[in-house]
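quick q for whoever's on today - can somebody do inverse folding on this one?? i tried earlier but teh output was garbage lol. tokens:
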């Protein structure tokens, strides 16, 4: 039976530790009728926080789908109670973490040492995260952020205006996005979704970067050299707001330094949402994708979370298909045995070129 440890602060709780098995952690939103508002320091780290007195730490037992407070006094040996022997949810046992709506804060080094952690979901209520949050989390590659779709876009005196092809709904960068992506130097994909519906609004890729200290002699001044485009991409914030124009202007640098796979993902992510995408940036992305159709098609097939035809619809929406690119993509879809892609492209070919014969392909 799973259980957790917490302390009360006013009318809310701070989660200190969770005990159980499995590689997927679903943090509860409440204990009984008490909402959980924060995660303590080191909550999933190998060693628990020592910031709380043992006598104020309480235990809650999983009963069905809910955690109910345990009325018995807590055993002085943390991590064990009479009749209950479960490991702490920490270290290599965790691959994904889901944080529910209502959580507002996460303490320092909360996920320290989770070397198998791959993804995490943040709620729209999140307001602050601690330092060293993902230290030792070398496999994390995705973060999901829920957004409150009912919030009005907050005006700013220094907000930049971007050329747009059409009116777009208001968009407010999640408050912790900047801090979260800076906490991970590896290639990371940030997926922004509407709270409640889970509808994806935006997907941004932040490539990897690393720092190299260099000593300038004889002054013995240490300067830091940054390698990889992950650093300039993570600098595309003004305060906490993502600056889309600056993000898109970094793409030529990515073409020179990053792999083709990474650049294809950068381009497709921006074309997919089209959010504050200028005509100049749109042309830049489309021209790049036309440069290697075989790599593009392989990239589309590799993203199993996306439907192939939906991805090609994105390309069509941005004027990607010419007579040449359409013919090449048809050949690639036929060679890959993707009848769904062939059907979609042949329908598209008929619409663009209504006169003439129909191609035939054998699988």
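ok took a stab at it. sequence:
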């Amino acid at each position: 039976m799973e259980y957790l440890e917490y302390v009360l602060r006013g009318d809310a709780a701070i989660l200190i530790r969770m005990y159980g098995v499995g590689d997927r952690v679903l943090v509860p939103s409440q204990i009984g009728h008490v909402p959980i508002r924060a995660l303590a320091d080191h909550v999933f780290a190998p060693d628990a926080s020592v910031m709380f007195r043992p006598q104020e730490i309480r235990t809650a037992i999983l009963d069905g789908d809910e955690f109910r407070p345990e009325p018995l006094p807590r055993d002085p040996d943390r991590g064990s109670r009479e009749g209950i022997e479960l490991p702490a949810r920490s270290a290599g046992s965790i691959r994904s973490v889901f944080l529910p709506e209502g959580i507002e804060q996460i303490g320092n080094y909360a996920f320290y040492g989770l070397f198998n952690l791959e993804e995490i979901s943040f709620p729209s209520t999140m307001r602050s995260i601690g330092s060293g949050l993902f230290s030792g989390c070398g496999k994390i590659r995705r973060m999901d952020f829920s957004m409150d779709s009912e919030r009005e876009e907050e005006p700013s005196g220094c907000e930049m205006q971007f050329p747009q092809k059409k009116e777009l709904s208001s968009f407010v960068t999640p408050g912790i996005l900047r801090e979260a992506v800076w906490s991970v130097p590896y290639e990371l994909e940030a997926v922004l979704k509407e709270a409640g519906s889970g509808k994806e609004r935006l997907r941004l890729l932040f490539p990897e970067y690393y720092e190299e200290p260099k000593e300038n002699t004889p002054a013995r001044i240490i300067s830091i050299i940054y390698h990889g485009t992950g650093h300039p991409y993570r600098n595309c914030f003004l305060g906490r707001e993502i600056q889309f124009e600056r993000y898109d202007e970094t793409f030529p640098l990515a073409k020179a330094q990053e792999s083709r796979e990474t650049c294809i993902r950068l381009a497709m992510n921006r074309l997919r949402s089209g959010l504050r995408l200028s005509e100049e940036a749109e042309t830049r992305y489309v021209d790049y994708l036309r440069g290697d159709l075989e790599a593009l098609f392989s990239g589309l097939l590799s993203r199993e979370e996306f439907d192939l035809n939906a991805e090609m619809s994105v390309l069509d929406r941005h004027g990607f298909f010419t007579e040449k690119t359409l013919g090449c993509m048809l050949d690639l879809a036929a060679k890959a045995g993707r009848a769904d892609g062939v059907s979609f492209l042949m329908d598209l070919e008929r619409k663009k070129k209504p006169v003439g014969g129909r191609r035939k392909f054998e699988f």
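fwiw Residues 211 and 226 are 5 Å apart (CA to CA). also The longest strand covers residues 12-19. so keep that in mind when u check it
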